[in-house]
């Protein structure tokens, strides 16, 4: 697996778009600070830039520089292990690129418990974009074959592995300050 992760990182470094397994479905990823790559990913998905993107990391410390300081209570809420994968929406400084935050003053982030996703972020050395591998409004891909069918050779690399859910739905999204459910995964 290490060679495959190194190859995925090589593609990310060169501005590529990759697909990889997450806790729930296959995700599309890129370097979040490479505007060309992020805008290309948004275009591939036929997604509106105003929606913003999710960032995934192997640990909270990779995400904290992109967020306003977190209180102890919020840190506890968003680092608590859950049965269901949760993406947290948290306030971010105005300098965060528009392709990440969209029209919002917040950023959607998740610390991944998935072994492949977490290893990818560790080897990359920071957070990655994590958007479900699908054309906006279509069913998310749950296998490399689904990814290939949806994107027909338009991606730079597919990192093989098993996603961690039988629901075949993207993660829940919750407000990180209040815990309020913003998107269900059921």
Describe this entry's structure for a reader.
The chain has helices at 2-13, 35-45, 72-79, 98-101, 115-124, 144-151, and strands at residues 18-21, 26-29, 54-57, 86-91, 106-111, 128-129, 131-132, 157-158, 172-175, 181-183. The mean pLDDT is 93. The N and C termini lie far apart (31 Å). It has a single domain, classed as DHBP synthase. The protein has 186 residues and is an alpha/beta fold. It has six helices and ten strands. A hairpin with a 5-residue loop joins β9 and β10.
Key terms for this structure?
186 residues, 6-stranded mixed β-sheet, DHBP synthase, single chain, globular, alpha/beta, 6 helices, 4-stranded mixed β-sheet
Question: Briefly, what is this?
Answer:
With 186 residues, this protein is α/β, with parallel strands linked by helices. It has six helices and ten strands.
What topology emerges from the helices and strands here?
Layout lengths: L1 H12 L4 E4 L4 E4 L5 H11 L8 E4 L14 H8 L6 E6 L6 H4 L4 E6 L3 H10 L3 E2 L1 E2 L11 H8 L5 E2 L13 E4 L5 E3 L3
Parallel strand pairs: 1-8, 3-5, 4-9
Antiparallel strand pairs: 1-2, 2-7, 3-6, 4-5, 9-10
Helix pairs in contact: 1-5
- What Rg is obtained from the alpha carbons, in whole angstroms? 15 Å
Number of helices: 6
Distance between the termini: 31 Å
Form type: globular
CATH A-level architecture: Alpha-Beta Complex
CATH topology: DHBP synthase
Fraction of residues in H or I helices:
25-40%
Quote the beta fraction: 15-25%
- Biggest beta sheet attributes: 6 strands, mixed
* Overall strand count: 10
């Amino acid at each position: 697996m290490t060679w495959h992760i190194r190859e995925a990182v090589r593609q990310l470094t060169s501005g590529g778009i990759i697909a990889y397994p997450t806790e729930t479905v296959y995700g599309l990823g890129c370097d979040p600070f490479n505007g060309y790559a992020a805008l290309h990913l948004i275009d591939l998905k036929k997604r509106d830039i105003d929606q913003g993107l999710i960032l995934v990391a192997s640990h909270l410390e990779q995400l904290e520089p992109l967020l306003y300081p977190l209180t102890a209570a919020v840190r506890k809420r968003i680092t608590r292990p859950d049965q269901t994968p949760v993406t947290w929406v948290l306030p971010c400084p105005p300098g965060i690129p528009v392709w990440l935050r969209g029209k919002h003053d917040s950023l959607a982030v998740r610390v991944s418990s998935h072994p492949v996703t977490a290893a990818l972020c560790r080897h990359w050395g920071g957070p990655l974009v994590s958007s479900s591998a699908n054309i906006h409004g279509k069913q998310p891909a749950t296998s490399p074959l689904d990814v290939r069918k949806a994107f027909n050779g338009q991606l730079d690399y597919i990192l093989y592995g098993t996603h961690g859910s039988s629901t075949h739905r993207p993660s829940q999204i919750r407000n990180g300050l209040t815990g309020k459910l913003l998107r269900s995964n059921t």
